[in-house]
Amino acid sequence: SVTSTLITILCLSAPQGVSLLVPQPNINATVAQNILLSVEYSCRGVATIEWKHVSSWGTTKIVEWKTGNYVNISMVYKDRVTTFENGSIQLLNVGMRDAGYYFITVTEEYGTNIYGTIVVNVYEIIYEDLHFVAVLFAFLAAVSAILICFMWLCNKSLHLFQKKTTHKLTASTTEEIELETIEC
């Protein structure tokens, strides 16, 4: 994109040769999804990489590490962040509070800094609840229709059975009356 190309051009013109590429400056995610904040940096010496999250809830330092040395992940993100050698980080199981701006600072050992920003939007999935309700409603409607058909069939069968029983009973009673008349 134009933004990532512009950052790279500006970085390459830095006196100490620090560069940073942010290929995806905007990320849309849903709650409970894992996201990759992808960057690519290069410098001539050892670099220190720092990620911060800024939102309406405040600023939080996520992680800081020096290539080949240490990784210092803040307690808030301890089990949710994975770091990569190219400067990228992966956030696991994002929530609504993870929406906001993510700032990366790459500092070369000689003191030259370069900055990058990624905007993350996190959305809740509401349609899953509506989908469940719709499926449940359809299931209950189908079961109701089947039960109504079953009741109708039972009712028809009962009427037919009662008709046959009444007809047999009438025929049987007539025969008895005729038999009684003959016997006398």
TrEMBL record:
Organism lineage: Eukaryota, Metazoa, Chordata, Craniata, Vertebrata
One Pfam family in the UniProt entry: Receptor_2B4
Keywords in alphabetical order: Glycoprotein, Membrane, Signal, Transmembrane, Transmembrane helix
Superkingdom of the source species: Eukaryota
Keyword Transmembrane appears in the UniProt entry: yes
Family annotation (SMART domains): IG (SM00409)
GO terms (BP aspect): filopodium assembly; positive regulation of excitatory synapse assembly
Organism for this UniProt entry: Psophia crepitans (common trumpeter)
Residue stretches making up the Immunoglobulin domain: 24-123
Name the record gives this protein: VSTM5 protein
Gene name as annotated: Vstm5
GO cellular component: axon; dendrite; plasma membrane
Statement: the UniProt record of this protein carries the keyword Membrane: yes
